[in-house]
Amino acid sequence: MALFPFCKSPAGPVRMNRIQLLLCCFLLSLIIYFFNGRKAAASLESAHPLSQVLGMKDGMILKDMSSMKTVDSKTPQETSWGAPMVWGDSHNSVWRRAKLSERGIRVGLLALVVGTYARFVRHFLYSAENHFLPGQMVTYYILTDNPRTLDPPVELGPGRQMKVLPAAELPGWDRLAYRRMVLFAEALWGSIGKEVNYIFCVDVDQEFVGPVGEEILGDLVATLHPEFFEMPRNNFPYEDQEESSACVEEDEGDYYYTSEFYGGVVSQMRRLLRECSLLILQDEANKVMAKGLEESYLNRYLIDHRPTCVLSPEYSWWDSPLTAHVPKKRLISLGRQCEAYDIEKRELQRC
Ligand SMILES: CC(=O)N[C@H]1[C@@H](OP(=O)(O)OP(=O)(O)OC[C@H]2O[C@@H](n3ccc(=O)[nH]c3=O)[C@H](O)[C@@H]2O)O[C@H](CO)[C@H](O)[C@@H]1O
Ligand SMILES: [Mn+2]
After folding, report:
1. Catalytic (active-site) positions
2. Ligand 1 atom having least distance to the Cα of 333
3. 225 is in an annotated binding site
4. Which candidate, 49, 1, 4, places its Cα nearest to that of 321?
5. Which residues does ligand 1 sit against, CB inside 6 Å?
6. Which family does the record claim for this protein (predicted)?
7. CATH superfamily name and code, 63-349
8. pLDDT in tens, 136-171
């Protein structure tokens, strides 16, 4: 009422004639129009990858409730096939978290840690303890050639545990890129499959920097690659060698997904890992390797089996001139971040 003092007679209850009533409605519409217009402008500026190129930084990110409305009103909330597109602060995510958090869910996080990548594992685990499904039962499965890396063990919260699984040493990413999905597939056919409901495969050269909750849970979950979000389809680096089993035709494909973070229920993940491994082994036998390595096979599979839940680039982010601007960063790739730095900055960051 204080907003419209002129609508109220000084004597007490509101008594307006028709002209006053019309005037009030007009003013009200003006105010609504003004606020909506501002929100739309803010979201347009903040959502576009060009804002990065032009040097616009986090100052554009709205940190109060209005940012939630921005996410809801301007960013896509679902895919063309009806799967949710997940932005952690959206109303959909709040609802999904509330719905799923009450169930007794067991979630596994599966990472490969071989050779020099052992330097990432502790930091990765600390950050996951802080941000990854807090309060839920989480098991970290660490496939490693050097279990001593985890000695002394990282202290974990209640309901959370770690299992170290042996992996033979496979020097060089060239060889490892052929093997990671095979190793993951084997691990999932073993005891992991009975111990958890959901499993997420994750690169260990990453850090959780914001909350990642039950909103990420789905039957088959893939994450949008931050450099190709909102890019036209013809920019996606799908495999184009016809002899590769990861090859994608020009009229195929909806999104380009990252291999840094994907998951789902155990049955779906067993299928994904088995089928991708078969494609990789088939190409290896034919002496072909897709240019995007593992990521190409994952993308091929996800064209044939569309994910039921698509995570926005909030869940796979690093700073580069091409990266989409996101309302909140939740999981960032330290390795890919390093790749995006110039030589000077790499030396400064010691990476
Ligand atoms: C090694 C390599 O060429 N990485 C390239 C690959 O990053 P990616 O992020 O695709 O691969 P990555 O180097 O992070 O390797 C994937 C994951 O495999 C595991 N792992 C990998 C290698 C290793 O020696 N030990 C180990 O444990 C580890 O969990 C790692 O997180 O693509 C990027 C661009 O998209 C950059 O070009 C990276 O330089
Ligand atoms: Mn990585």
Report:
1. 295
2. 9
3. yes
4. 49
5. 111-117, 173, 176, 180, 203-205, 259-260, 335-336, 339
6. Belongs to the glycosyltransferase 6 family.
7. Spore Coat Polysaccharide Biosynthesis Protein SpsA; Chain A (3.90.550.10)
8. 999 999 999 999 999 999 999 999 999 999 988 766
